[in-house]
Write a structure and sequence with these properties.
The model has no long low-confidence stretch (mean pLDDT 84). The longest helix is centred in the middle third of the chain and has 16 residues. Helix 2 packs across helix 3. A hairpin with a 3-residue loop joins strand 2 and strand 3. The N and C termini lie far apart (31 Å). This protein has 94 residues and is an alpha+beta fold. It has one domain. The chain is built from three helices and three strands, in the order H-H-H-E-E-E. 15% of the residues are buried. The protein has a three-stranded antiparallel β-sheet, with no helix packed on it.
């Protein structure tokens, strides 16, 4: 369990692919990790829609690994400090 899921009491997208030691699920874990990383660094409607299909509502952006500080029309910053930002994804379907 990661610190993020422990504090938020929510499942993290990467944790959704269990068991963690399964080689068969390694590609899916990598796909999910890359999706989040791409969205945080260069948000787009396509990446947003992909996250929403997984049921993602919140994203944690670590400021140590991204220079992005604005996610435009795709996410609203709900909390931010020097370490990172908590983003609420915008669902255009609603």
């Amino acid at each position: 369990m990661s610190l993020t899921s422990a504090i938020s009491k929510r499942q993290v997208l990467i944790e959704g692919v269990m068991p963690a030691n399964s080689e068969k699920l390694s590609a899916e874990r990598q796909k999910r990790r890359m999706l989040i990383e791409q969205f945080v660094n260069q948000p787009s409607r396509i990446l947003l829609d992909s996250l929403l299909k997984y049921g993602v509502v919140w994203v944690v952006a670590d400021h140590a690994v991204t220079k992005t500080r604005s996610w435009g029309e795709f996410a609203k910053i709900r909390f931010s400090n020097d370490a990172g930002s908590v983003l609420e994804l915008k669902n255009f379907a609603n």
